Amino acid sequence: MGCMTTSQTPIAMTIAGSEATGGAGAQADLKTFQALGVYGCLALTCIVSFDPKNGWAHRLTPVDQQTLRDQLEVNTTVYDLDAVKIGMLGSPDTIATVAEVLTEQKPRRIVLDPVLICKGQEPGAALDTDEALKAKILPLADFVTPNHFESLSLSGLEAIDTVEDLEKAARIIHERSGAAVLAKGGVRLDGDDAVDVFYDGQTTEVLSAPKIGEVQVAGAGCSLAAAVTAELAQGRTPLEAARAAKDFVTRGIEARISSHAPFDSLRQINRLA
Ligand code: PXL
């Protein structure tokens, strides 16, 4: 099959939702893969469009389970995937489908962006989804990229206010999941730098870069996890992948696209640009 293709280009699949404006979700993932030299394919889980007339609330249309299953089937059949990224799943049903397929045939290098709620959603709005994600998807992950809110939820800590707290959260999440963890402090911790903590059971590394601007940037979390996925697909170690991904996101925020929403969109800058 695939006659005469001897390409060594790494291939990654994202399992993610569409976010229409292209800032976050599957669009961000595929653009990130492309920018970092990885061929991307997609299993779409849901379609999100923010509502400009209602405070940019999420309007979410799920993809039906058979259609999701079909996409997972064809992508895992057609390619020997080098890595898989899991982004927004959106419902307990989708989580069950993805967990079932990935357990039957576990791909190499699963990166989980544990999207519990999105910017603007009510915390606690989707508790059953959160619980299903922790129970069924987290154990499959080789690498996990929780933001501040997700780190609280996954670690059970009551507060994460300092870099030391974030290190503690990363250790707890590693112990619970076995995965390498990149816990993102982002703009949530005080100070001039956006600080993230990497922990894989051996190495703790604090990654920091100056905070940029005042406007929130959509797609930073998606692009970070997608960049980790792309780097792992190319054979980098988890720590190398974390460092490269942080750098990619910092450059993408610097080059962000401004918009009429209260958040800008990260722009994925080609490694060679
Ligand atoms: O940023 C998390 C995220 C992931 N995936 C989709 C989204 C969002 C946030 O809006 O819409 C599809």
TrEMBL record:
GO terms for cellular component: cytosol. It holds the Pfam family Phos_pyr_kin. CDD domains: HMPP_kinase. Its EC number is 2.7.1.35. Gene3D superfamilies: 3.40.1190.20. It catalyses: pyridoxal + ATP = pyridoxal 5'-phosphate + ADP + H(+). Keywords: ATP-binding, Kinase, Magnesium, Metal-binding, Nucleotide-binding, Transferase. InterPro entries: HMP/HMP-P_kinase_dom (IPR004399), PM/HMP-P_kinase-1 (IPR013749), Ribokinase-like (IPR029056). One of its GO terms (biological process) is thiamine biosynthetic process. Residues 21-257 form the Pyridoxamine kinase/Phosphomethylpyrimidine kinase domain. GO terms for molecular function: ATP binding; hydroxymethylpyrimidine kinase activity; metal ion binding; phosphomethylpyrimidine kinase activity; pyridoxal kinase activity. Belongs to the ThiD family. Catalyzes the phosphorylation of hydroxymethylpyrimidine phosphate (HMP-P) to HMP-PP, and of HMP to HMP-P. This is pyridoxal kinase. It comes from Rothia kristinae. The lineage of its organism: Bacteria, Bacillati, Actinomycetota, Actinomycetes, Micrococcales.
